[in-house]
Please model this.
Amino acid sequence: MNWSSIFQQAISQAFGLNSMVFAMATIGLNVHFGYTGLLNFGHIGFVAMGGYGLGMAITTFGLNPYLGLLVGIVYALLFALILGVPTLRLRGDYLAIVTIAASEVFRIVVRSTTLAPWTGGNTGITAFAGPFYELNPFTERLYSFGPFFYTGPNLFLITIGWPLVILVTLGVWQLMRSPWGRVVKAIREDEDAARALGKNAYWYKLQSLMLGGGIGGLAGILLAIGNSTVQPDYFVPVQTFFLWAALILGGVGRIWSPIVGSMLFWALLTMTDGVMRGLQSTGAIPSWLMDGPQVGQVRFMLVGLGLAILMVYRPQGIFGSREEMMLDAR
Amino acid sequence: MPVDTAQSPLAGLPQEPGVDKPDPILVVDRMRKAFGGLMAVDVHRVSIQRGLITALIGPNGAGKTTFFNLLTGFDQPDSGTAVFDGKDVSGVSPFRLANMGMVRTFQLTKSLTRLSVMENMKLGAKGQVGEAFLRAFLPLIWRGQEREIEARAEDLLARFRLSHMRDEYAGTLSGGQRKLLEMARALMAEPGLVMLDEPMAGVNPALTQSLLEHVKSLRTQGITIVFVEHDMDVVRDISDWVVVMSEGRVIAEGPPDAIGQDPAVIDAYLGAHHDAPIGEEQEEQQLAEIEAAEAERSEPGSEL
Model:
């Protein structure tokens, strides 16, 4: 088994496009759940909104590509508004139901044949990212430095994406240490207490939903440009739960946990994959037990097992504080 | 001690339900709330005198907490009006009421467990510029106000003997300390009227006395207090006026030392016949009455 190759792949993935998109999306989820206590089980819907907003703006409506970036964000914000207005007055569970349903409804609607002229149907939207790649300085096909290796387009995206992730993280950090963040955290703890102290809980929850949704939309834009395409079937519910896994891995309600959680999630996924394929090639895993394609499924089982073990021994995640966690149990 | 009855602005008021006070801060008119077939609150008129401590008492299920929720906007009445400080506040949401100066606490304390005690306190302050989304990004705008709020919070924490806990999570406080924190936090909002829902419930007797002192000190600052309480000793100790509810209605009002003698109150707490000796004869007579009523009810044709 080639360990150095496995590590190289894991580290490249940890800093790669998928991990960067996950980090950005998870920041939004952290705003929702970690700071405001909103149960959003359809976060991938916001990501989809960003991607489709950008793609449709350029290909369907023929807008300026840079305006398209704005459209992507606006799509995600509108999605948050539409979901939030009717549900945020109700108990938290309703938002959970509505978000997971809405994200699926959106995916199924955009992949329908009827809407194909606008949304590309089940093949999605392609050929919109060209204008952005005109700026790409990394024109070679493959780049390799130290343990990292990336394709030119991916390297372009992550050199823009990671600083953006840091910037958004710092923005959220500033917000959460302001009086605004205090209100939002108070709502997480007890909405009625916040209302009794004169805070318009509904309005703050809506703001938070839109903020996190907008960040999710930004992740979708980065994903769409990075892959040069938006595919409806990328945005399946299980992606939402991968985002949750990354958030929980890092520690809910901690500022750096989305980034570290996403990197770990992708590194672990890549590593288990590499190790299992290595074991297969040496014959340590016989083919009647697991064949090539099954590895892809089994690695998710292993990540699930890892999460379960984490919940037992370190339920607060990597950055969480155990003391804070125990307060909840009372 | 209650305000001396002779000097009290309520001296000489008739002791009857719904009596108007000379300087009311809160007036409730014909307020009704039903849950299905149960009329939980049916208050004809109640007015609360400004600057005094008014107790709201009544047996379990009398509708006190529901009435409280209606007054503070946490529940909407089916009909009726409430006027707070001259403004009609019927149907006004809780956060607006709080900003108008009516702040409540809860029977089960709502300390924000994963915020520090200091953060809990600061949350209570009204009109914070940094609570607006865009301004939150610019600490220069709100830092000055934040410092003022913090100073005010320090003072209050010292008064409530919670200074040593200022940086601890509120979730680590004891039950009694949480009650103190909730009261102190409510004061951060600089309210004109504080509504305390069972402030002494679940507090150990040693702390009760200090809580009572705090409540009394609010009155000396000119804050009006309405509180729900079960403990009659507490009511007698601190309240200036008592409103008694039973089965959703206000059945009696009066000063605390007189209210205990009110026959309507005794009835409500102990039942109408509590002092009637029950001999065999009366018992049989009562049984016969009940049976007759039953028979009448199950008259043929009256059933479906």
